[in-house]
């Protein structure tokens, strides 16, 4: 039985009281597209459009870049402590507007309201974290011979572009914008066309917090019409891209043309290694959350269960029961799991499942599309678990980006390590065992940007995050995330 929070369901029929912005945010104000065009965003929980937004193109990008160049000139000269104050006020404003942001995120992306609230509070924490870093960007002094001084200082890289995906709209926007602004850069964000609203609301809150006009611009629209001209613009000094490998490679080619720096956060096919001696119940709960949170649409989702043979049967049986009990529904109704983000994403996932069925795969749970019980609408996929597949199977190798867990059975811990490393991705990995040494041997030997031991998704904004292999390069979060937005200048002087 789903809980039905009082007051929230009115947004299913009328989202107008959220006052969602309809324009780009350029030079401190909301503006229509130069072309006058707009497009609609869907609520995937109902499969219906619920709000209009501006459909930008190269002309709007040109306006945003020229505004951001001016904004950068102002912001880089703003005293670091003042920058910190603006970011702290932004964190405060995000908290004051948390419910509006969470409802907008829930409607636009489909995620359950509880997850959306968590994302919003994480975004506030991200601004708070980087607020504190603004006035602590210290350089170094180098040991030159007497008669010389040598030192380095961090300078902001300039105008930074942020291409944001639809799975974590406000989190990804905050994760890129906050460190860029802390370093003294200006930002232009291009949110995904499926989820444009929270980036716009964030830009408005930054302005309310005192960010000068032009330091944060947001242009909405499609990847081809707005994203491509942004990353190819010669006025951009850095690109942070989060999304698919194919689009990331495309963006890298555009960056190469102008020798623009970039950080690439691409996909994953992350293993959750569960050994025989694990805490069984804790491992079950973590494996479930790792793949079914946000219906598996998480770059770091634990989408492969690498399970040691001794507990395999009992573990997958328990997991399948748990998956079958997961409630589906519109995000505002606080289900266990919401829809996937679009009809296209649903159909992509179903393609993987249909092909697997043709290859004879055994489904331990789910495997089909679904709709919300209350409306018969929406883009849902049942929580799905597929029994052990060979290493070269598409379900083992490809990012499905949906609530689909593939099992891989391991003979022992060494075999588990081999299986964990068997894809072209290297974003995260989970390890569940009570054996301290084993856990740390696996953490050492797994090729991934981060390894979670005995709690999947452990960590916070303090911990750097990013991928190895085709999961990308560069790190976000933590103080390391700040370095992407700084360039080192070394100064050496002969002083006699
Ligand atoms: P995508 O990678 O094409 O889109 C991500 C962002 O890039 C969006 O803002 C989009 O508008 C923008 N974009 C698209 N083409 C662009 C271009 N030529 N230049 C600049 N920006 C561009 O991902 P899409 O098509 O939404 O989803 C396809 C698949 O990608 C998903 O099924 C999923 O497997 C994967 N994906 C992975 C994500 C992750 O965090 N690892 C996030 C989103 C998608
Ligand atoms: Mg939407």
Describe the structure.
Helix content is 38%, strand content 21%. It is an alpha/beta fold and 496 residues long. It has two domains: 8-266 and 473-489, 3-Layer(aba) Sandwich (Aldehyde Dehydrogenase, Chain A, domain 1), CATH 3.40.605; 271-460, Aldehyde Dehydrogenase, Chain A, domain 2. A seven-stranded mixed beta sheet has the order 14-17-18-13-12-20-21, with helices on both faces. A six-stranded mixed beta sheet has the order 9-8-7-10-11-23, with helices on both faces. A three-stranded antiparallel beta sheet has the order 5-6-24, with no helix packed on it. Helix 2 (80-96) packs antiparallel against helix 4 and helix 4 runs parallel beside helix 5 (169-183). The longest helix is centred in the first third of the chain and has 19 residues, at 113-131. The chain starts with 23 loop residues before the first strand and ends with a strand. 1,4-dihydronicotinamide adenine dinucleotide binds at residues 163-167, 190, 192-193, 222-224, 227-228, 231, 242-244, 247, 250-251, 266-267, 299, 345, 348, 399, 401.
List keywords for this structure.
24 strands; binds 1,4-dihydronicotinamide adenine dinucleotide; Aldehyde Dehydrogenase, Chain A, domain 2; alpha/beta; 496 residues; single chain
């Amino acid at each position: 039985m789903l809980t039905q929070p009082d007051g929230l369901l009115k947004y299913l029929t009328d989202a107008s009281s959220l006052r969602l912005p309809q324009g780009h945010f350029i030079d401190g104000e909301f503006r229509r597209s130069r072309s006058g065009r707009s497009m609609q965003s869907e609520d995937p929980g109902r499969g219906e459009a619920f709000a209009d937004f501006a459909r930008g193109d190269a002309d709007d990008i040109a306006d945003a870049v020229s505004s951001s160049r001016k904004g950068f000139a102002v912001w880089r000269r703003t005293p670091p402590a003042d920058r910190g104050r603006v970011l702290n006020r932004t964190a405060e404003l995000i908290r004051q507007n948390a419910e509006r942001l969470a409802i907008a995120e829930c409607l636009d992306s489909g995620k359950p309201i509880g997850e959306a609230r968590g994302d919003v509070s994480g975004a506030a924490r991200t601004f708070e974290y980087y607020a504190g870093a603004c006035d602590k960007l210290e350089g170094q002094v180098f040991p030159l011979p007497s008669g010389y001084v040598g030192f380095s200082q961090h300078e902001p890289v300039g105008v930074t572009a942020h291409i944001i995906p639809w799975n974590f709209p406000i989190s990804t926007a905050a994760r890129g914008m906050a460190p860029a602004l802390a370093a003294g850069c200006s930002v232009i964000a291009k949110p995904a066309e499926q989820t444009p609203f929270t980036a716009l609301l964030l830009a408005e809150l930054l302005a309310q917090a005192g960010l000068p006009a032009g330091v944060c611009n947001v242009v909405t629209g499609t990847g081809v019409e707005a994203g491509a001209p942004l990353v190819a613009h010669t006025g951009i000094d850095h690109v942070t891209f989060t999304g698919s490998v194919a689009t990331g490679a495309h963006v890298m080619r555009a960056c190469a043309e102008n020798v623009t720096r970039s950080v690439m956060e691409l996909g994953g096919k992350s293993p959750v290694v569960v050994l025989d001696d694990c805490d069984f119940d804790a491992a079950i709960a973590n494996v479930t959350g790792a793949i079914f949170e946000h219906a598996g649409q998480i770059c770091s989702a634990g989408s492969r269960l690498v399970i040691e043979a001794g507990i395999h049967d009992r573990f997958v049986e328990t997991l399948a029961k748990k998956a079958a009990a997961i409630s589906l529904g519109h995000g505002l109704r606080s289900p266990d799991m919401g829809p996937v983000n679009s009809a296209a994403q649903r159909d992509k996932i179903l393609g993987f499942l249909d092909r697997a069925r043709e290859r004879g795969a055994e489904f331990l749970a789910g495997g089909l599309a679904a709709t919300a019980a209350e409306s018969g609408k929406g883009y849902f996929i049942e929580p799905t678990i597929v029994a052990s597949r060979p290493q070269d199977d598409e379900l083992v190798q490809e990012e499905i980006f949906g609530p689909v867990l593939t099992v891989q059975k391991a003979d022992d811990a060494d075999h588990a390590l081999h299986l964990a490393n068997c894809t072209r991705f290297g974003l995260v990995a989970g390890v569940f065992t009570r054996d301290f040494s084993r856990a740390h041997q696996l953490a050492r030997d797994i090729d991934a940007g981060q390894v979670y031991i005995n709690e999947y998704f452990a960590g916070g904004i303090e911990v750097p995050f990013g991928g190895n292999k085709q999961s990308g390069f560069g790190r976000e979060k933590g103080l390391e995330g700040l370095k992407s937005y700084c360039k080192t200048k070394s100064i050496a002087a002969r002083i006699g």
